[in-house]
Amino acid sequence: MTIPRHCVDPAKAIAEAVDASEGDLNISDALEEISVGSKLRTILVIDDDEAVRDLLKRFLTRNGFHVLLACDGQEGLKLAREAKPDAITLDVLMPKIDGWAVLRALKEEPKTADIPVIVISIVDDRNMGFALGAAEYLTKPIDNDRLFDVLEKLCPGDREHHVLIIEDDTATREMMRRVVDRAHWKTREATNGVEGLERLKEGIPDVIVLDLMMPRMDGFQFLVRLREEPNGLPFPLLL
Predict the structure, then answer these.
(1) 213 and 164 both lie in a single domain
(2) Are residues 115 and 173 in the same domain?
(3) pTM for this structure?
(4) What is the separation, in whole angstroms, between the first and last Cα of the chain?
(5) DSSP the chain
(6) Range of the structural domain that residue 227 is part of
(7) In a domain, 70, yes or no
(8) Tens-of-pLDDT digits for all 239 residues of the chain?
(9) Among the three residues 122, 154, 186, which one is the final residue of a domain in this structure?
């Protein structure tokens, strides 16, 4: 069984796939889907024009970004502090607090100072934007291709992924490792649940591929131990 391509929540998709599966889960497709989901970058769009917000949301979502929307500077500052997005697009001409004041506030606060801000405005004042700390300055009407190139440069989505394979059968474990290697993921291995818990001390993986029938500590006991951790289950599992 394969995980649907349209899924954007890898943990939920895997859980549903495991529950519904009557055969083997397609590990290669599942890892690919998780890789796509885990690369989602968050962009905060701050613009008082609803049509522009909608346009940017549809464009960014279609190109693999998670989008947050703010209709004015005050709401934008609040979301920036709470969500710590990967990048922010910012209009200049807005009511209450204009874009210059928002940009200045973002760069003065330690929590938000490192977030790249792309000014997108009908006002062509690049010197002011760069002087206040903008990473890039684009003028309206929006050039989608240019915006995409800027976002890819400022917050690239490729990062190293890690999978932990917990499986007592050597041949099965080696087969899984070959599949993971083809997906260009880094692999750690364990032959039972006890070893699996030890491997978790080396770092939290993006995914665990878990056998249920194993000696010493089986997959069910391993899941119980994981859920006893203070933070619960912080990553998706393939069973």
Answers:
(1) yes
(2) no
(3) 0.54
(4) 13
(5) ----TT---HHHHHHHHHHH-SS---HHHHHHHHHHHHT-EEEEEE-S-HHHHHHHHHHHHHTTEEEEEESSHHHHHHHHHHH--SEEEE-SS-SSS-HHHHHHHHHHSTTTTTS-EEEEESS--HHHHHHTT-SEEEESSP-HHHHHHHHHHHS------EEEEE-S-HHHHHHHHHHHHHTT-EEEEESSHHHHHHHHTT---SEEEE-SS-SSS-HHHHHHHHHTSTT---S-EE-
(6) 159-238
(7) yes
(8) 333 333 334 444 444 444 444 444 455 555 555 555 455 689 999 999 999 999 999 989 888 788 999 999 999 999 999 999 999 999 999 988 999 999 999 999 999 999 999 999 998 899 999 999 999 999 998 888 889 888 888 877 665 678 899 999 998 888 888 877 766 678 899 999 999 988 888 887 878 888 888 888 888 888 888 877 655 555 666 65
(9) 154
